[in-house]
Amino acid sequence: MLHNNYLPGFDETVMPHLDAAYNLARWLMRNEQDAQDCAQEAFLRAVRFFPGFRGGDARAWLMRIVRNACYTQMRANWPMRDAEDFDENAAPPDSGAPNPEQALLKIDSGDLLRKALEELPVSFREVVILRELEGMSYKEIAQITGMPTGTVMSSLSRARVRLRRVLTDLMSGNPLTDSRRVAVVGA
């Protein structure tokens, strides 16, 4: 463990959340090296801004810094191909398909889930990761993303619908071609 004599409380407050921070960076960036770069940048930002931290949920505070570092890197290096508007009328909830949790029970390999998650637009991927893998509350996700809690809930619902569609395609052996990927991502 690092010992920060110049930042009392940093080790106890921030360090327990580094694994969750890296996990979020890894899922948002889809690339090991980019995730490491973002996690390191986020950690440096956390050190720099820790004197201004006034208590509260340190995990949500750090995850927001990670999210911001990832989005900054994405804007600098990639076109925001995943950040497209979602038309709720074009993709109403599909109540007939298995829910993501049921689909996951049928999956023998985490690779299928990873592939499906990577097909989601980054805005949907992050709410799924924060809720399902990191176990964060809607309120915490709202703090991290800056979205109202209701928007977090509706985004998570839409993300689950898309995840269900992608998982169904992948489980049936139908790899997503570029045209089908656009249909799933744009739906």
Q: What's the arrangement of secondary structure elements?
A:
Elements: H1 10-14, H2 18-29, H3 32-49, H4 58-77, H5 100-106, H6 110-119, H7 122-133, H8 138-145, H9 149-171, H10 178-186
Helix pairs in contact: 2-3, 2-4, 3-4, 4-8, 6-9, 7-9, 8-9
Write a structural description.
The chain has 187 residues and is mainly α. It has 2 domains: 10-77, Rna Polymerase Sigma Factor, Chain: A (Orthogonal Bundle); 88-186, Winged helix-like DNA-binding domain superfamily/Winged helix DNA-binding domain (Arc Repressor Mutant, subunit A), CATH 1.10.10.10. It is 66% helix and 0% strand. The chain has helices spanning 10-14, 18-29, 32-49, 58-77, 100-106, 110-119, 122-133, 138-145, 149-171, 178-186. The longest helix is centred in the C-terminal third of the chain and has 23 residues, at 149-171.
Instruction: Give the end-to-end Cα distance, rounded to a whole number of Å.
Output: 46 Å
Strand percentage lies at under 5%
CATH homology superfamily of the largest domain: Winged helix-like DNA-binding domain superfamily/Winged helix DNA-binding domain
CATH topology of the largest domain: Arc Repressor Mutant, subunit A
In terms of quaternary structure, the protein is single chain
Order of helices and strands: HHHHHHHHHH
Secondary structure tally, helices: 10
Task: Look at the structure and give the mean pLDDT.
Answer: 79
Bulk shape: globular
Main beta-sheet strand count, sense and barrel state: none
CATH architecture level-2 label of the largest domain: Orthogonal Bundle
